[in-house]
Design brief:
Blueprint (H helix, E strand, L loop, with lengths): L3 E4 L6 H9 L3 E4 L5 H6 L1 H14 L3 E9 L9 E9 L5 E3 L1
């Protein structure tokens, strides 16, 4: 039986990630938005905006990259970022 732990950003803590990695538990945690992550997916945000302008429909673009916090994570980990352009009032990166 495969176990996958999925949780929001409140559980994205070094201790839990290390435990999952040590026990070979697949895991997916949400990350709280921050300025550094926003800069990393800036090109995808621009691409989503252009798609929205072209189609008039919500646009979503993803990016996969390696990320490490400045203080709390012991190593870099893979991240999938999502850039969304829904309309002028609802643009976001996560």
């Amino acid at each position: 039986m495969d176990i996958v732990l999925r949780a929001d950003s409140g559980f994205c803590r070094e201790e839990l990630m290390v435990w999952c990695e040590a026990n070979r538990i697949d895991h997916a945690f949400g990350l709280a938005r921050n300025q550094r992550l926003g800069k990393i997916i800036g090109a995808q945000m621009h691409q989503a905006h252009l798609q929205h302008q072209t189609t008039g429909k919500p646009a979503r673009v993803s990016a996969q990259f390696s990320y490490q916090t400045r203080k709390s994570w012991s190593c870099a980990r893979p991240v999938v970022g999502k850039a969304e352009y829904l309309d002028k009032a609802r643009t976001r990166a996560s």
